[in-house]
Amino acid sequence: MRSEKGRRWCWIALVVLYMEGVVVAEDPYRYLDWRITYGDIHPLGVRQQGILINGQFPGPDIYSVTNDNLIINVHNHLPHPFLLTWNGLQQRKNSFQDGVYGTTCPIPPGKNFTYTMQVKDQIGSFFYFPSLQFHKAAGGFGGIRILSRPKIPVPFPEPAGDFTILIGDWYKTDHKVLKTILDHGKRLPFPDGIQINGLGRDGAKFTVEPGKTYRLRICNVGLQNSLNFRIQGHKMKLVEVEGTHTIQTTLSSLDIHVGQSYSVLVTADQRAQDYYVAVSSRFTTQILDSTAILHYRNSRKTVSGPPPPGPTTDISWSLNQARSIRTNLTASGPRPNPQGSYHYGQINVTRTIRLANHAGLVDKKQRYAVNGVSFIPADTPLKLADYYNIDGVFKVGSIQDKPAGRNIHLDTAVMGADYRAFVEIVFENRENIVQSWHLDGYSFFVVGMDVGIWSPASKNQYNLIDAVSRCTTQVYPRSWTAIYVPLDNVGMWNLRSQFWARQYLGHQFYLRVYTPVKSYRDEYPIPKNALHCGRA
């Protein structure tokens, strides 16, 4: 039996540990139960078959706080296999939960799968969407917001309200027809319009109180087009980009490229009436546009006049705006320490990876490639094949780390990379359209972008002080964008185009971040409920 003295010392030790902050309760759990079904939707005023989550289109917002555990049970009631991916959630040490076919077996019709994820050391605005087939063209997407923990300072006063605004180009054509067009090796036609929170022109309404300030989390969940966002008669203050608090700049309009997310603050400081929220396509010959309504609660007057015009094809304006978006070095991120305490510009780059995208035909069918390789899925998710050491599913090194000419060949492209390496990736866009690149599992520093051809001398113009850290970046036509990535997350990670038809036809590959040390410190084991398929 433990002595009284021993019990007393044990109690004192616990008190000291508690006072020192060593004893920490387990991070909270949030449980969600989602039914995936088809249902009627009318984004552009025409009835379509859409993908609903618990009967909703768009799907429900996910509300969370830094380090929360998300337990999301997804029941697939579609007649097709289904997966959701979480655009911007880093899935620390846990690429099994990423929800793309290279990491996760599809949920069969009539079955369910429970995602178990932690939003470890993250804050900010993101979204989720279906990753298989061409389901994204039918909906199934929704917003993700990760709030700071209560004692972590945020560099702006708490807003009076917080709106998720999901914008994107949209087709009236059924997603299965669009998929068939791509499967036949043809290009898709130009989209038919723009949806705003699942609605067409003047369908969405955001109600505000005069004099109060609101946070708008704007995500481009579309299929291909960059969009410009603006509000009639109001300025916007940029405060956050995909989990990074930014230097707060005042904007009259904002370019949001496909797959990107931004937070702005808007103050209801104008005369009490209704105002247009305008969204239009960028860099397109045919301009798509749509509107929503900013409604003052005491308004007695509807919107008047034309919606505010936006920029159209001017690239230099957009490029200059992108360069102006920088990290607020003194603001706290998900932890109390300032965002600027990580001096990425002082770390030696261990490897430079150059990625060039291009289009072409293979066997008379349209394909898209990176460094000459057009990705084709294997019969087994790559992460499962890697975990179980299944030979013949993929080959590390099947895509090179520099451009390889204009010829295209098909392969299950996987590039190897060392855990804890610090790499430079240069996206070289030799085509005449804007590209949008996303890397699962990471945020990266956008250190430079410019028109023309990248060369080692281009490093002289890199921002090595306060480049914004994000997970999706644009590359302008016949231009380049350079990023720095600390490879601190072991796993199999999808690096892809957010132009969804291009992604579907090969514009993607997987980055295998590997360590020979098998430790739960570096990577979690395969989930007990993991689905198995293919050769696994």
UniProtKB/TrEMBL annotation:
Annotated InterPro entries: Cu-oxidase-like_N, Cu-oxidase_2nd, Cu-oxidase_C, Cu-oxidase_fam, Cupredoxin, CuRO_1_AAO-like, CuRO_3_AO-like
Q: Which UniProt keywords apply?
A: Glycoprotein, Signal
The UniProt entry's coiled-coil ranges are: none
Q: Which domain of life is it from?
A: Eukaryota
The Plastocyanin-like domain covers 36-149, 162-298, 379-516
Signal sequence, renumbered to the chain = 1-25
One matching Pfam family, short form?
Cu-oxidase_3
Membrane-spanning parts: none
Q: What family is reported?
A: Belongs to the multicopper oxidase family.
Q: What is the name of the protein in this document?
A: L-ascorbate oxidase homolog
